[in-house]
Amino acid sequence: MGKINTVLGPIDPESLGITLAHEHIVAGYPGWECDPLARPYNQGKMIDVCLRSLEPAKNCGVNAIIDATPIDLSRDVDVMRGVSEKLQIHIVCATGRYMESGGNWMYLKQRQRNKIGDMKTELYESFMKELTNGIGQSGVKPGVIKVATGLNCIFPCEEATLRAAAQASKETGTPIITHTEDGTMGPEQADLLIGEGVSPQKIMIGHMCGNSSLDYQEDVLRRGVYIAFDRFGLDLFVPDQVRIATLVGLLGMGYADRIMMSQDFIACGHGRGGRPPEEEIKKVINWSFTNIFRNIIPALKQSGISDDQIKTMTVDNPKRFLIGI
Ligand SMILES: [Zn+2]
User: Fold this and answer.
1) Going by fewer Cβ within 10 Å, which terminus of the chain is more open, N or C?
2) Using an 8 Å Cβ cutoff, are 251 and 305 in contact?
């Protein structure tokens, strides 16, 4: 069996244990760096902030995290390494890019406009650089490639990203993790990647819990890919009760071996901080690295879901996905 790349180097897949399939250690939407009032970029302090929210997850048994932060959302492998060392938790980081409306595309668009470089080729070369030589000077090699698409549409930069990711995945064996906007375009993402030659077991279609239609879920699952129920706690999009009901339905249909769970939590965000109004906070009151252990798994068990099914989703599937079987 192959090794899995983590921010502290390759590990034996058997040592992964309980794995959160889609979270963020450090992330920030492009533009925060233009805010003169943004908090200073202090990596030591950021590691402390991350440890405070991750320690409770470690106490719940979490042993590994897939950090789904793409390059253009201020991914920080130094902070990830610090957190991984201090907490003794495995962190698998990503190469890849965010969706066209939320990512940082002006530079590549301008190069394409000036006919300096073709966007898909330049994305492919950038992913391959990180996958084979490591990120920057860190030597850290990503364990997944992140791609993303917009609401009800795959925009041109996103299509270039998916095709570049597929090529890099085929050449390196690296699995692909996706962002869907509100759970849309799952079948289209799967078709495009599989059409480019990526095997379905190397694809995890993300944020599928944003869509509560079992027909839609099956439409994606019948393609043989993994799906992620990875936004538990973000009740402002879809209430957890609805995510749980959809998940129980899929488990009843026998899909435990294709589903992973996570929370899309961000341990440390960039920018100037601030607090939303109370009524907004109520919609994310349970959002944390521990929501699935405190609230979701107990609710699943009450609905008759077995310990075996939960282990399949939290231990076996992330391991099989990361080694591509
Ligand atoms: Zn995410």
Assistant:
1) N
2) yes
